[in-house]
């Protein structure tokens, strides 16, 4: 099985109980229940990790919507646009292997950022992935499709 490098990790985030803003991290530890330390850890295996592309933020900027990284709820922000990849596609990032479980659907909570955002990003918000192989992901890690 060959690995094809497609990009890099730009930013990493976790959601912390009691805080509305996600916390930026230098690394994430993942296991079959998701991102350790994240408030959603172990709640839904199919939605363990949210990966978003810089493409989504660029699209918002082109439409005069100001956002900060993490506003889309991502755990991992990457410089590769994975939205065209089919469900079950696999990524190797750091030591971890992730599998796309499904693409994000229209999310009304994005209205809090800007009322136009849910419609604008309906197919470009991100992908949910489940952890296939435990590991650590660091900011700057290469991303491979396997």
Describe the fold and architecture:
- The chain has 146 residues and is mostly beta strands.
- It has a single domain, classed as PK beta-barrel domain-like (M1 Pyruvate Kinase, Domain 3, Beta Barrel).
- Helices cover 9% and strands 38% of the residues.
- It has two helices and eleven strands.
- The termini are close together.
- The model has no long low-confidence stretch (mean pLDDT 93).
Features:
mainly beta; 7-stranded mixed beta barrel; 3-stranded antiparallel sheet; M1 Pyruvate Kinase, Domain 3; 9% helix; 11 strands; 146 residues; globular
How are the SSEs placed, and which strands pair?
Layout: E1 4-14, E2 23-25, E3 27-31, E4 34-35, E5 49-53, H1 54-62, E6 76-78, E7 90-93, E8 96-103, H2 117-120, E9 127-133, E10 135-138, E11 142-145
Parallel strand pairs: 5-6
Antiparallel strand pairs: 1-2, 1-6, 1-11, 3-4, 3-10, 5-9, 7-8, 7-11, 8-9
